[in-house]
């Protein structure tokens, strides 16, 4: 059983819509990472957080440690936001990241 | 500054041949990671290097896989006697230091390996 669950697996929305992607994990973590992977492209780290909330431009990431849940929000979505968004968690005393299966986001003009 | 680079970008090989994949981390980054992304599947941890410490090889799928990191910089992932199930994108990442999964990792563009 994957220890990191993402939802939805696929998401299609109209340009301008508010997007939410969810990630839940099973046990306490040291940090949670949100990554972006464009088709045919490399992986870019968007956020790393262990508590609270972070914002970068139109992207917002939140984490609730008690509920073991994180969300990635995109405001005023744009077609260039179309990508696979991956949640990954790090565990204390362990350098491995465990990855979710990703959410494929498509923004339609 | 330069990011993480990997070579080759694409590699096609025949079943049974050995392949070497190279990763150049960001200068000054002491931690280096190899991951694999098979078609339609998520990312999978393979191996981790931190400075001069013994690497964490716990993610390597079989003894056909090995990796080394020379001089604390460049790393090579070697797959011996390749099998079709080894076909995947192999990604390298580096980070400034290690601290229990709580470091931002910078990813290379990956090497797409196809085993015929």
What report would you give on this structure?
The complex is a heterodimer of chains A (109) and B (116). With 109 residues, chain A is mainly beta. Chain A has no helices and 11 strands. Chain A has strands at residues 4-7, 10-14, 19-25, 31-37, 43-49, 52-56, 59-64, 69-74, 83-91, 94-99, 103-108. In chain A, strand 6 (52-56) and strand 7 form a beta hairpin. Chain B is mostly beta strands. Helix content of chain B is 0%, strand content 46%. Chain B has strands spanning 5-7, 10-13, 19-24, 31-37, 43-50, 65-69, 75-79, 88-95, 106-107, 111-115. In chain B, strand 4 (31-37) and strand 5 (43-50) form a beta hairpin. The interface between A and B is medium-sized, with 29 and 27 residues.
Largest sheet of chain B: 6 strands, mixed
Specify Rg of chain A, calculated over alpha carbons.
Answer: 13 Å
Listing every helix as H and every strand as E from the N terminus to the C terminus, the arrangement of chain A reads EEEEEEEEEEE
Which structural class should the secondary elements of chain B be placed in?
mainly beta
User: How does the major sheet of chain A shape up?
Assistant: 6 strands, mixed
The whole-number mean of residue pLDDT values of chain A reads: 92
Please provide the count of β strands of chain B: 10
Extended strand count of chain A: 11
Relative strand content of chain B: over 45%
Overall average residue pLDDT of chain B = 91
Low-confidence stretches of chain B: none
* Helix content class of chain B: under 10%
Overall geometric form of chain A: globular
A few lines on this structure:
Chain A is mostly beta strands. Chain A is built from no helices and 11 strands.
